[in-house]
Amino acid sequence: MTDKKLDFRVNYKNLKIFDEFNTREIKFPIVLSSPHSGTLFPPEFLQNSILTEKELRTSEDSFVSEIVQKASDAGIPLISMNIPRTFVDVNRDKIETDNKMFFDIPHNSEDVGSRRCRVGLGVIHRIVYQNKSIYDGLLSSQEVAERIKNVYDPYHKRLKQLVDKCVRKFGFCLLIDCHSMPSIICNIMNETKPLDFCLCTLFDESCPTQMSEFLSKCLETKGYRVEFNRPYAGAYIAFNYCQPRKNIYTLQIEINRSLYMNEKTFKKNSHFQKISTDVCESIVGLANFLLDFKK
Predict the structure, then answer these.
(1) CATH architecture of residue range(s) 16-90+148-291
(2) Confidence band (pLDDT; 50, 70, 90) for 295?
(3) What is the DSSP letter of 170?
(4) Residue 6: pLDDT band by 50, 70, 90 thresholds?
(5) In angstroms, what is the C-alpha Rg of the chain?
(6) Rounded to an integer, what distance in angstroms lies between the CA atom of residue 189 and that of residue 267?
C-alpha cells in the first residue's frame, strides 16, 4: 500500500443499510442474522477501490439471506445486511482496526485489533480472498468512523432489539448467525466427502448442546455432512451476543457455497431451491423443538 491519500466521503442518504423480515410477530425463540450477504456497494467506495466489483464479491456470503428466507416466513425474524463486508464488516468488533491503513493516524499508534485485523480482515477489510488489496492508498479515519456510525451501529442496534424482544416473549433466545464458506476449504478438510455444513458453537460454549445437536441431526437426516467448530468455531456476533446468564444463546451456521452456487460466476445452481428448503426445514424443526425447550 502506498502513501496515497484516499480522502473521500460516502453519501448514506440513499443507502438502505439492512432489510428485516417478519419482525413484528415472533412465533419462535429464534432470531436469524445474515451479516455478510450484502451486495449494495456505495459508489464512492467502488470508485476508490482498485478491485472490480466481482473481485470484491469473493468475500461475500452470496444468497445466504435468501436461503433462510422461508424459515423467516414461518415466523422467525431475520435481519440481513445490504452493505458488503468489504466496506464494513459487522461481524467484527468495531475496535478491530488497523491503524496502518489510515493517513491521519500516526503509524506508531498502538493497534488493538485481533489476528484477523492484522492480516487485513478487521472491521475495515484491507484485502479480499486470495490476498488481493482493496485499496492502493491510505484511508481517512474520519471516513471510517462514518462507516461505523452509519452502517455498523444501526445493524447491531436493530439486532440487539430483536434479540431482546425475543427474550421478553419466550424467556430466552437463540441467535443463529448465517454464513457460507468457500468450497475449497470444505474440500481440503475431509478425506472422503466434502464438508457441507459447519455448526459453530465456540466449542460448546455458545448454546446448550441439545440445540446444536438437534440442528445437526436434522441436516444429517437429509444426507449432509456436518462438523462442529471445524473449520470455524464462531466469530464476533456469535461471541459477543452469547450471554447464557441472560438466556441468550448463539449458533453460527456455515454452508458450503458449492452446494447452491457457482462460486466463479456468482450464479445459483440447480440445487439452490433444494438446499434452501432443506436448511429452512431444519431451522423450523429446531424452532419447534425450542418451543418446549424451557417447559
Answers:
(1) 3-Layer(aba) Sandwich (3.40)
(2) very low
(3) H
(4) very high
(5) 19
(6) 25
99 grid coordinates: 491503524
Q: Is the pLDDT of residue 111 over 60?
A: no
DSSP type of residue 110 = P
H/E element holding 197?
Answer: strand 197-200
Cα–Cα distances in angstroms (integers) from residue 22 to residues 69, 77, 80, 166, in the given order? 10, 5, 12, 12
Spell out the long-range contacts of 133-136 with Cβ–Cβ below 8 A and sequence spacing 24 or more.
Answer: 133/1, 133/50, 133/51, 134/49, 134/50, 134/51, 134/56, 134/86, 135/1, 135/6, 135/48, 135/49, 135/50, 135/101, 136/1, 136/2, 136/4, 136/50
The pTM score is: 0.94
Query: Can you tell me the mean pLDDT for 177-205?
Result: 88
- Pair 37, 80: CB distance under 8 Å: yes
Structural element, H or E, at residue 220: helix 209-221
- Residue 67 CA to residue 278 CA, distance in Å, equals 9
Beta bridge partner(s), residue 156: none
H-run or E-run covering 237:
helix 236-240
Cell digits for 140? 481517512
60 C-beta neighbours (distance < 10 Å), count: 21
Q: 228, 169 in Cβ contact below 8 A? A: no
Model confidence at 281, in pLDDT bands (50, 70, 90)? Answer: very high
Are residues 134 and 86 in contact, defined by beta-carbon separation less than 8 angstroms?
A: yes
Query: Is 186:256 a contact under the CB 8 Å cutoff?
Result: yes
- Mean pLDDT on 201-229: 97
